[in-house]
């Protein structure tokens, strides 16, 4: 009998939460707005791939060889020749202004040295304020250069310009075959979109949960509820279940957009994905609830959520691999539920692995969730403090 | 604003919220130095009217003039001339008492020379001397209201708008509050106050009775009681009360009957002729009759009778 | 406009901020913590990529090649596999991102036929790391290949050199090509955008929610006075944050600072005005704090993180997206910050960005003032 009453009270709480959430146009917007916006922005804007590196060229040699080299660049999809300049200071000024990223300076002995079988070098000014682009760009440069030199040497139409005999067919060569797995096209979107699910869920579920409790406290309706026979756990259940359901809804929506619009494959089992996400949401709920017991006002809840969410997302391996972080931060990622979510999400979507591989991550998230929820329930007093 | 000009002039004021008419073509005037009361049940349109007069809402039609300023056209100009106490307590709970006072003093540009004196006066009036450093949120309701009043008059406005200033306040504090209002009126301030407490209405110089957006009656309390009561009033004590009310309503000559405290009031055309009939109606049903006498109507009686009459009968 | 009224509003706001020490502490600490996290944690120079090796040839030649993988800081050999299945497992479990497989008879093929190949298997679920790993692996193999050729030439008594084209890079502004130098100035922008907008986004909404707004607007204080009075304390906090973050960036994280501090503060002040206005506008539009908070998230954090160029370069984004970023203040500020920190360029080279910020500031302030009504409906 007592249990039945409990269920009833929880049901009432749920009903109230849903009505409040769905009636408020802002919250309604929240269900769709942020997830969708993030999806599309990440899908289209976020990329660390480097293409169309802006180049400027100063060709002081003006020979067939130098023009041949330059044509390699203009033909390459990695480079974009923005300007052919006639003076050196134009190069400097352009880089200062940010008009282009690299400036090639071919000086007048270029072709001669090639014909003599010597190495010819080309000066490159690199704007390294974006180190990633610069690094990758330099890598491309050297590849184009190597290709050019190789072709030059192998060119059978050598009309006696070169001093060295044709050796090329006899030169040993080691090549690398690359096999990208799970994401053959090295598609940035396939990488980010599953991760976005993790981000959005954490932000939404955690923030909304924290806000929900604190809001009642701040507005004053908490007092009215505490006075009823409702128990602590019933209240908490009533407060958290709606956001759990909202999280499920959002997760489904994003997954659908990801698979249908962006074409991200779903190679693993949906059941495993569902289990992983549900335990992840458990952790997020726990976190949100914990924050709500620590915050007296909504402003505090917001700031506190943000304070934790930012590092959690940044250090989760969402955008850059954990393996390149300092050891200390790598250790920290063990207690970060978002890290595990990334593993599960990418594992199920792209790698197609199953429970036997992912169970440690799922177990970790469950543990974190249970811990946080338990702790919050204990902290939460049926009083107004 | 000249001496003879009324402080507040309202002419055919209407305020609609969507399809709901909150205030329907009301007109009245309040004079300098009087306590002008706006009396009515919840939802009658009292708060809406005050908010329009303070420039917080724009009327749908009609004219409103406060301290000689057309509120509709120049809402900002009015603000320095008035003090306003909103219905819900709306000072800053996380500020100390003195901080709230200083804040509003700053907003009303109370001159530096007189500031200490005004602050001291406000604290004294509110009974908060010695408690300047108390956080406002920790004060009991009655003190909060007095503090809010203090904050509203630091700049000595000629007109004061108080929206249900004593709701939720204990009777002793209410009494005290009204003494403060009387003090201010004595200094020439016009006080425009809304209330749903009938007994407070007796304190006002003039009253407007408002119900469902329309003015039902207007005048001094005495005028209202004598002129607007349709018929005369009988006090009937009987037991039990419930059946007594029914019986009374069916008794001959009884125009209306209602429960008042632990007795019944019956509105009759003529008290003397009706009394025997009433007694008989009750006793014939086996109800025990206690006191049965004519009484003077209170404002509450007036109000109930006015709001129960058909619309055509209203003022 | 009355300075007295503005001061009254500012004083109240400061008292309220001060009385909430938790928020205050987080506001001041959060930027620093973010800075440190990004400075240390976010490294888009991918290094120490976990590598798994499966050497089916096990010859001197293959060992030579694999040693090159070992000796570079780009890779970290975490596992030596003995079967193909094991390699698959390593990748599936995420233990390694790249696996190098040397086929059997590698050395033999190379010496007799002059051509041999090596396989690199990549876990491309992390496309970025995978493609970077791929290019590292490629360059390692290429250099091994060149070395092989040089050795061959020597053995056959030929000139060691061969026609080749090398590039002599002179890197400007960030000589060590440290991604930290790229990102950290951007972090300052992000933090300011978020702190500035987040905080102010609650200020008006909170008064509405608590009911104090009604009393406030019944007084003679004007719209603009309320705006200035409320934003002033947050401006000060924002500038303090900027100064603190810049100092930490330069002293602790060793980010170069080649510009002038005056220019930095002037530009930051302009950006702050923009950000605070965004927050204020949000606060006016959203009647509840929850709504304000979520709007602030969407309108400040996300765009700054993703579209300002601080982490993901704008010139690599699709053209449509690049146009969208033209509307975003953080984009200009990130550019300005990188300029000031790394390039030390003259103000005239940033004129376009500064103008854009100024225009945006004026527009936002006007919108916010227009949107706020001293009325109840």
Structure description:
The complex is a heterotrimer of chains A (385), B (315) and C (377). Chain A is of the alpha/beta class. Chain A has 14 helices and 5 strands. The model of chain A has no long low-confidence stretch (mean pLDDT 81). Chain B has 315 residues and is α/β, with parallel strands linked by helices. Chain B has helices at 46-53, 75-79, 97-107, 115-126, 141-153, 171-186, 198-201, 221-227, 241-250, 271-283, 299-308, and strands at residues 8-17, 20-30, 35-39, 61-66, 69-70, 82-85, 159-163, 190-195, 206-211, 214-219, 232-239, 254-260, 263-268, 288-295. Chain B has a 6-stranded mixed β-sheet, sandwiched between helices. In chain B, helix 3 packs across helix 4 (115-126), helix 3 packs parallel to helix 5 (141-153) and helix 4 (115-126) runs antiparallel to helix 5 (141-153). Chain B is elongated, with a radius of gyration of 23 Å. Chain B starts with 7 loop residues before the first strand and ends in a 7-residue tail after the last helix. The mean pLDDT of chain C is 85. Chain C starts with a helix and ends in a 6-residue tail after the last helix. Chain C folds into 2 domains: 3-42 and 178-371, no CATH class; 49-155, 3-Layer(aba) Sandwich (abc type-2 transporter like fold). At the A-C interface, helix 2, helix 4, strand 4, helix 6 and strand 5 of A face helix 2, strand 4, helix 6, strand 5 and helix 7 of C.
